[in-house]
Amino acid sequence: MVEILEKPKPLVVNELPQYDMSDNPTDCCPRFNPEDWDDRDLLFREKLFVRTETRSIAHIPLNMGKVFGKTFTAIEDAGAQDMDQFIVLSREVSAWKAEHFFAVTKAVPGENMVRLSGDFHTKVFEGPYREAKHWHEELVESVGGDMKKPPDVYFFYTTCPKCAKKYGKNYLVGIVRTDQI
What we know:
The protein is of the alpha+beta class.
């Protein structure tokens, strides 16, 4: 018997997997479809983002809701969102601070704009946020990285805690920069 293998989708610069905003029974966070995001390669070339920071105490965010709300409002007011290419990349800088990158289509007045370039790989995880440290290590190891000098790792928190509870699943997408390995 001959097995027919599905051809991998070609990489398109700055394109993200589909994030279906129409499946949204909570009117907050849409239901997340992990199959579209797991084990994917992403190619960013000068991809535009709004960069923000949040404060934490021992890795527990203090002002995430306020910062995200303000940032989403600024992006919407500028008409800079593309809901078909939605992602917020988050990474901890320290136990006291995290940075977040909101994908946008154009500059947002009054916000810190950055462009990211690199080759990335995704892996979907499901479970409580407290597992992120283990997922970080697993993600780096899955692409042949070394924890002594780890590459950039981001997480895409696909739903807020209330929506994750409602859906019964808490998916996070780990995104590791592979051109640093």
